[in-house]
Specification:
The complex is a heterodimer of chains A (577) and B (173). With 577 residues, chain A is of the alpha/beta class. With 173 residues, chain B is an alpha+beta fold. In chain B, strand 2 and strand 3 form a beta hairpin. The chains are: A alpha/beta (577), B alpha+beta (173).
């Protein structure tokens, strides 16, 4: 291989040490600032685990109960800290179990480095015990991957792995290390990677494009922003707020953009997409300039592309050139890191308030409140709603908690109603929609920001996909708060069956175990709430608990999430019931 | 749906095990059949070149290029129509020696820019190069003699417009 890794200019002279490949892996992790990783040992990675044992005062390894849990924990850690999450597994099934988390990190642009053990180099291709072609398997779902078969490759490849995972549009990198490369000794020396020939992390900003965008924005009468996770990944929250406040533009978010702008900010007009808010969806098809910032026009955001914002000029601020015109044709593409491009455009845009236009959002908000939100948050009928649970959590958290949600109805409700005061606070599986994500992701999130409250909100379906991670919580004593909204259904699928399949509830009803007993089996404080009058107190008890806490809330069985844009419909055809 | 046509996709890359998988996965994910593929070194030291031929719409071609260029070890990718490239394919035909002195066969070979490159007691081998159509026509004409073996290479192509790889490599660093 020809790795043309450039070397940091002021490389300090370091003494070369003669060590094993396994020890080199640990030293590389320490050089990259890693002090916490998630994983599961096994035959082909034992030399590295042996070194972890020796370095345990510097590098904490969290033993998850399944390798998938290790990836989601690493993702949760990465999403709240902005650092690279690290997961480790053995060859064969250990490696294949990482794939769901890697695919999730790829589609949600989460920086992650996965290290897998591999059989000895001389056994490659011999169908050896626990041999699998993890490079081949992970190729379509990694930003980069590489198989190390010689110890001397370790420092350069590890440096490159971290650089690629965190730079530009972040993503997962998998490094597969054959066992001989772990046990061989060599002269180790570490140099950080600062560039890779053939890889341009950030496109060069074309100031003319920034000017063209400013010109369109200044001429707009009804501009609207849709922002995504790019604002968070680019750590451009300050630049973003300065820009929208000066230009006075109503700003809506994708679920991964959530928390980049405080929920209560006057220019925050809510969520776009399938279960987003009424106003921003409706007005997408009324605005005259649509400004997309660090988002990728996912089909769950746009609905039918044939009738998506056709009347509007589209400006796209984006770091990844492959996203331009991928789904929605843009009039002005502003390539670059949004931290740079938003800072540049600030002086070019005129101050504005767009008061009348903003009023339209408020009018739609009122409609949505009357028809949907009021009954979600302040129900009068029997049966607890998911919305009122979120309302109680908001009261207790005051908007300062990290909310980790799984996938399904509860996820949409959590994203719609959770309050956030600060960025990097909403952790959810957006693009891949990975059920089972939340419980392990919450573990990683809490370890990433131990000073903050971390609340996992999970459905009864997804919870049982990674429920074994309760063992990790028990063993590490990580004080996460777990809320299971139990409707005894795979609720989102059931909702579709109700609306589009004449209520044929094929395999969506769940006969559930005693979740409280299971949590208690892991010595986790647990409570179940079935009545409205007990809810506030139970949430308060959970939130003030010093230890991990499990709260099950029996919610109404056949509640639906509205508003909703049916598949294939236009954003302006959003339904309120 | 935009009209589909033949595009030659040229990809300049680092030389790395696994990159072929990474590139072919991009076509696979979009359910695009690769008509032909060739890998070779390029005009630049240590830079390799993949040449794919695919039948797709221009919009697909543009998006595919975006996805290919996103791969870490890809330096740059280009797409061209047949008018924009000079291209060739090579083919080998193995035929029984009993037809060697057949006058008709000799005439056909002259006409088609084909050469006999090996003659043995039992068989001879004809090499031909040209466009896919040229080779298809020669194939049809030689088929009656009983092809003992036939093989055709993937397309190799040189673009008429410039592909400024050396300059790009400067810019990366």
């Amino acid at each position: 291989m020809e790795t043309q890794t450039a070397v940091a200019s002021k490389a300090t002279t370091k003494k070369t040490v003669h060590i094993s490949g396994a020890e080199a892996v640990i030293k590389c992790l320490l050089e990259e600032g890693v002090d916490l990783l998630y994983g599961y040992p096994g035959g082909a990675i034992m030399p590295i685990y042996d070194e972890l044992y020796k370095y345990q005062d510097k590098l904490q390894h969290v033993l998850t109960r399944h390798e998938q849990g290790a990836t989601h924990s690493a993702q949760g850690f990465a999403r709240v800290t902005g650092k690279v999450g690290v997961a480790m597994a053995t060859s064969g099934p250990g490696a294949t179990n990482l794939i769901t988390g890697i695919a999730d990190a790829q589609i949600d642009s989460t920086p992650m480095v996965c290290i897998t053990g591999q059989v000895w180099k001389h056994l490659l291709g011999s169908d050896a015990f626990q041999e699998t072609d993890i490079i081949g398997i992970s190729t379509p779902v990694t930003k980069w991957n590489y198989q190390i078969t010689d110890a001397s490759e370790i420092p350069e490849v590890m440096a490159k792995a971290f650089y690629i995972a965190r730079s530009g549009r972040p993503g997962p990198v998998l490094i597969d290390i054959t066992k001989n490369a772990q046990v061989e000794t060599f002269d180790y020396e570490y140099k950080k990677c600062t560039s890779v020939r053939s890889y341009k992390a950030k496109p060069t900003v074309d100031v003319n494009q920034v000017k063209a965008a400013a010109k369109l924005i200044n001429a707009a009468k009804k501009p609207m922003i849709v922002f995504g996770q790019g604002v968070i990944l680019g750590e451009a929250e300050v630049e973003f707020i300065a820009f929208i406040e000066k230009a006075g533009i109503p700003s809506a978010w994708t679920i991964l953009g959530l928390s980049a702008l405080p929920t209560d900010h006057p220019l925050n007009v809510g969520m776009v997409g399938m279960h987003g808010n009424y106003g921003p969806n409706k007005l997408t098809n009324e605005c005259d300039v649509l400004i997309a910032i660090g988002m990728r026009f996912d089909d769950r955001v746009t609905g039918n592309l044939e009738s998506y914002a056709k009347q509007a000029k589209v400006i796209h601020f984006e770091i990844d050139p492959a996203e331009i015109d991928k789904n929605v044709k843009t009039d002005v593409a502003v390539l670059g890191d949004v931290k740079d491009t938003l800072a540049q455009i600030l002086s070019m845009v005129d101050s504005n308030t767009h008061t009348d236009w903003h009023q339209k959002f408020k009018d739609h908000d009122k409609t949505e409140y009357d028809k949907v939100i009021k009954d979600d948050l302040y129900p009068t009928k029997d049966g607890l709603t998911m919305g009122e649970v979120l309302k109680e959590i908001n009261i207790a958290s005051k908007g300062d908690a990290v909310i980790v949600s799984d996938v399904g109805q509860h996820q949409m409700v959590a994203c719609r109603y959770a309050k956030f005061n600060q960025s990097k606070s909403n952790v959810t599986s957006g693009g891949l929609g990975t059920m089972g994500f939340a419980l392990p992701a919450a573990i990683g999130a809490k370890m990433g920001v131990p000073q903050r409250e971390v609340v996992a909100i999970i459905g009864d379906g997804g919870y049982q996909m990674t429920i074994q991670e309760l063992g990790t919580i028990f063993q590490t004593k990580v004080p996460v708060k777990i809320v299971v909204l139990n409707n005894e259904f795979l609720g989102m699928v059931r909702q579709w069956q109700q609306l589009f399949f004449d209520k044929r509830y094929a395999s969506t009803e769940l006969i559930n175990p005693d979740f409280v007993a299971i949590a208690k089996g892991y010595h986790i404080n647990a409570k179940k709430v079935t009545k409205r009058e007990d809810l506030a107190e139970a949430v308060e008890e959970m939130m003030t608990s010093k230890d991990a806490y499990f709260l099950e809330v029996a919610v109404e069985k056949e509640g639906n999430v509205f508003p909703m844009i049916p598949t294939g419909a236009s954003v302006s055809d959003i339904r309120l019931s | 749906m935009e009209e589909e046509r033949i595009y030659t996709i040229s990809v300049y890359t680092e030389n790395n095990i696994g990159l072929l998988n990474r590139l072919s996965a991009i076509f696979l994910k979009r359910h695009i059949n690769i008509e032909s593929m060739t890998v070779s070194k390029s005009e630049i030291e240590e830079v390799h070149r993949f040449t794919f031929v695919v039948n797709i719409s221009e919009e697909q071609a543009r998006k595919i290029i975006g996805q290919i260029e996103k791969q870490i070890e890809v330096i740059r990718a280009f797409y061209h129509t047949d008018d924009e490239v000079v291209y060739q394919e090579s083919a080998l035909f193995k035929i029984s020696t009993k037809h060697l002195y057949d006058e008709e066969i000799q005439d056909k070979l002259k006409f088609r820019r084909a050469n006999i490159i090996t003659i043995t007691e039992h068989y001879f081998v004809i090499e031909a190069s040209g466009s896919k159509d040229d080779i298809d026509k020669l194939y049809d004409r030689l088929k009656p003699y009983g092809l003992m073996q036939f093989v055709r290479s993937g397309r190799i192509a040189i673009s008429r417009p410039k592909m400024a790889i050396s300059e790009l490599l400067q810019e990366f660093n």
